[in-house]
## 1
Amino acid sequence: AVTAEDQDGNGVAGVKITAMASGKGASVTPASNTTGDDGIAVFMFKFTARKGGKITFTANGLTADIIQTR
């Protein structure tokens, strides 16, 4: 799950978050989701290779990565 929060740490509803998988064996679904009333958007991701995969989440011009290291 990915959480969108305001500057006070409160969840923000209605934020569109996109997800992109890159690297060997990385996958994510869905490609985009919108946060609910709690500020959370749920994604499923997996890495089938031992390392080198990356999932990038983007919302409102901000980016966060999950990088597989093993």
Note: DSSP finds no helices and eight strands in the chain.
## 2
Amino acid sequence: CNTCGKSFRRSDSLKYHTASHTGERPFICAHCAKSFKNQRDLKMHEKCVHGEGNSTQFKHFTKIMDLLCRI
């Protein structure tokens, strides 16, 4: 990272991390306009808050998702 010097093995990890410095949140929820710094968090929000998503796609993460939705 050019800002803090932290290194990453994957370029997408660096991109995700860089958003923590810039405050960039380009992924916007179409239902409530809440913004997110990555698509994964947007999809989790849509499933938890708006009930969207294919439940079989998240079957391995159901327990984790339920806990995160309560936070």
Note: The mean pLDDT is 80.
